[in-house]
Design goal:
Blueprint (H helix, E strand, L loop, with lengths): L16 H11 L2 H14 L3 E3 L29 H12 L24 H10 L5 H11 L12 H7 L8 H11 L12 H11 L7 H10 L1 H5 L3 H8 L3 H12 L7 H6 L8 E6 L2 E6 L7 E3 L1 H9 L7 H33 L1 H6 L9 H8 L3 H8 L3 E4 L2 E4 L7 E3 L5 E3 H13 L9 H10 L6 H10 L5 H4 L3
Parallel strand pairs: 2-5
Antiparallel strand pairs: 1-4, 2-3, 5-6, 7-8
Helix pairs in contact: 1-15, 4-5, 5-7, 8-9, 9-12, 15-17, 17-18, 20-21
Length: 471
């Protein structure tokens, strides 16, 4: 074959270091952000904490741009270029993910990994496709502290951006993958599934494993009500065997994620404070949570005096410091913008509680604030809102809707609140069945299937009617 030369043109997105940092900062919680800032301050002498700074823009705290180096590889990217990069990214389907780097910190003991980090470490080392890893990671974000999946898959698929092309089958496969990770039982949607996952994870030769699986599958309620005679009748076993089976089940961990949540305290610093002003609920940045960063003017003045001399590494660090401050400003502005849109749409929740929660999806907020849905997803994860009703993660305010017979819509969160309210007020001697609850809601104009009622009840860790009954 005769060798030939070919000219090929291609287009690709090159993320500048400043844009990479902007995306990374947006993903961090306030606690993680403070840790990241402490590290950057130690590495960059041009940065310093200044507790005397007000909450206004940091722009007047930064030196003039004439202190920048003229060296091409150290020249800071212009704000216009940065904005163009952001717009390109927002309007594309490209997702940029950064791994949490592990930095050695002398004299500070390393903290044990959280459940989320431990699971993400496992999938990062797996042979799964990148798409599958991202979907599994999405499910990991929906786990509670005990390791249970608190987000219904049918609801989750309606919340996800359409352009991602994720279907319910993709979520089912990702959940099956998640449930095979360590610790056993993680990713379960209820206690029964949690126990079954752990039993099936045991070696097949484990004594009484098959019998225990059958009891958990068919007679878990019977076991909980201590009806041992009925269990022995169905399993055709004696007292000794039943005690061994019961011991095997009792040694399982009903909260597989608890070891990680208890190993280190989870500190939450609210990013947003919600208050009522002139009859309207509004959101404000938590000024106490804002990092007070400024440029070290001693080093900046030295650079300014020596700008005609060969540049040192300090010039590059000055540019990095400026960009960090700008990116922190952008992060706060974006969080506030998204929070304002959420609070504006959930006024009735702040007034009346969960029962008044409105259906809300990422796309609605993304269109309101003119951001991409992936950006809104980053903003609402691990960012918290302090309200008179408690502290909530921003993504808490999103949920699918259930149609009403009047043509309106009711959020899944509101339906859960209604179910919980009905059960709290029920006659404990005649508890409400799932069918009865569905009938009561239908009388109120909300049509919900019995199966859906059961799923919502289980997600709130509420046992079925026969186990709630008292004598």
């Amino acid at each position: 074959m005769k060798p030939t030369l070919q000219l090929k043109l291609s287009q690709q997105l090159n993320l500048t270091p400043q844009l990479q940092q902007s995306i990374r900062l947006l993903q961090l919680s306030t606690v993680e952000l403070n840790q990241e800032i402490e590290r950057l301050i130690q590495e960059n002498p041009l940065l310093e904490l200044n507790e005397n700074l007000s909450s206004k823009s940091y722009d007047d705290q930064t030196p003039n741009h004439d202190t920048q180096s003229d060296t091409d590889d150290e020249k800071i990217t212009s704000q216009a270029d940065h904005d163009n990069d952001m717009e390109w990214l927002e309007n594309s389907n490209v997702s940029y993910t950064t791994q949490n780097d592990d930095y050695e910190t002398p004299q500070i003991a390393a903290e044990p990994p959280s459940l989320r980090n431990y699971l993400n470490q496992q999938i990062s080392l797996s042979q799964a496709s990148e798409k599958q890893k991202k979907i599994v990671s999405l499910l990991i974000d929906s786990l509670d502290e005990d390791g249970y999946l608190i987000q219904d898959l049918d609801e989750l698929v309606t919340i996800l951006p359409v352009e991602l092309g994720i279907k319910i089958d993709d979520l089912d496969q990702a959940l099956a993958y998640l449930q095979h990770l360590d610790p056993p039982g993680v990713g379960a949607r209820n206690l029964q599934e949690c126990l079954l996952l752990q039993l099936k994870n045991l070696p097949e030769e484990t004594p009484y494993r098959k019998q225990a699986i059958r009891i958990v599958t068919e007679y878990l309620d019977t076991l909980a009500s201590h009806d041992y005679a009925l269990i022995k009748k169905h399993l055709k076993c004696d007292d000794h065997s039943l005690r061994a089976i019961q011991k095997l089940i009792m040694n399982l961990n009903p909260k597989p994620g608890s070891d990680y949540s208890l190993s280190c305290a989870r500190y939450i610093i609210p990013d947003i404070i919600v208050k009522k002003v002139n009859g309207t609920w509004i959101s404000q940045l938590n000024l106490d949570a804002l990092p007070r960063l400024s440029i070290n003017h001693l080093y900046a003045n030295i650079l300014k005096q020596k700008r005609n001399e060969p540049s040192s590494g300090l010039s590059s660090q000055l540019n990095e410091a400026k960009w960090l401050i700008k990116n922190l400003q952008q992060r706060s502005s974006t969080i506030l913008k998204v929070s304002n849109a959420i609070v504006e749409r959930q006024q009735q929740f702040f007034e009346h509680g969960e029962i008044a929660m409105k259906p809300l999806v990422l796309k609605e907020i993304a269109e309101a604030v003119e951001l991409h849905e992936s950006t809104v997803s980053r903003v609402t994860t691990q960012k918290f809102m302090h309200t008179p009703r408690g502290i909530f993660e921003l993504k808490y305010f999103f949920g699918s809707h259930v149609a009403t017979d009047t043509g309106g819509a009711c959020s899944a969160t509101a339906i859960r609140a209604l179910i919980k309210q009905l059960i709290q007020k029920e006659n404990s001697k005649k508890p409400l069945s799932d069918n009865k609850i569905a009938g009561i809601l239908e009388e109120q104009g909300i049509v919900v299937a019995r199966r859906t009622i059961a799923k919502y009840r289980e997600s709130m860790q509420i046992p079925p009617a026969n186990l709630r009954k008292t004598f």
